[in-house]
Input
Amino acid sequence: MSTQHPRLRTDDGIPPLAGFTVGVTAARRADELGTLLQRRGAAVVQGAALRIVPLLDDTELLAATRELIERPADVVVATTGIGFRGWVEAAEGWGLGEPLLERLGKAQLLARGPKARGAIRAAGLVEEWSPASESSVEVLERLLDDGVDGRRVAVQLHGAPQGDFVASLEAAGAEVVVVPVYRWLPPLDLAPLDRIIDAVCNGGLDALTFTSAPAVMGLLERAADRGLREQVETALRRTVLPVCVGPVTAAPLDERDIDSLQPTRARLGAMVQTVTADLPQRAQRLSAAGHALEVRGQAALVDGELKPLPPAAMALLRALVRRPGWVVPRSELLRVLPGCGADEHAVETAMARLRQALGAPRIVQTVVKRGYRLALDPAGAAPPAPDPIPDAAPDSGGCL
Output
């Protein structure tokens, strides 16, 4: 789902993503993505899930370039614009630009999409064909239909290995040379990525964005190193919305049965539009004590006014909203306040802060000797009680 013209403010003046926190795992264009989200009101947590090997230092790319100059390919597949441009620029830096372009000019050039096509033309070359779908699958089908048996095919990669693509060509008799442009490695500083993983586990994120398949794999591998992979994958299935720039990026999540949100066009701006359209629809809206209450990811709207809440207060409000109108015992509320031990006084303290932050204390009623509940207005009579509140996620912060 996406919207063509997302408003930077709603009718009541609140930015559409106000109250939501979004994680950014990108290595490239992370600041641009973060700024676009912040302009729409989101709080942003950045933590690159990978780093890019500088092209001029990449011995694998240099070796592939030399090989293709010495033994030219019959077919060259350009998968991305930035990757193809980077390859040509790196070759020029090594003094190999002219012979590489000469060999490429004699090959059958296929471009996966318009950006790759533009990069080919910018290098003074002409592509033979490019699919309107921008799909690697369609490129593969074209190659197999034309026949590749005995032909030498160069495939320009962009970070993620295209194992199925290459294997299919090899099974059809092609000799495949992979050109590993922009290889990914783990980030040198893992602390920002660890903060994102912690936020996924403890409920501190509402959405997590990915702009490449290697970023997905990098995050999951780091979570596995910390013994948190199962917890992260569970959160991505249930509580944190994974947002991918396109189906190629989403493939590692698909393999793990994790659904993701994707824009109709694989572009950064379209991904931000999709997040902007989707997240506000996930807010819970109630009428309590004569007030319009909207519970967002990390904040609440009370009568259209944004009310940022501290983590403990937010945890209590979520627990109450999960069972609207029903009394939630202090013992159950204590379970959503990690780090507070067995002292139910912590619930009272956090509840006082919740009421103060909401600015409308009567929204939450105290039921003597039993617990607390939302004061639903008559039109919002309590539905059947849901399952008991689950334990809070570990290591999700102190009780206040």
Q: What stands out?
A: The CA atoms of residues 73 and 108 lie 8 Å apart. Residues 284-380 form a domain with the Arc Repressor Mutant, subunit A fold (CATH 1.10.10.10). Residues 1-7, 392-400 have pLDDT under 50 and may be disordered. The first strand starts at residue 21 and ends at 24.
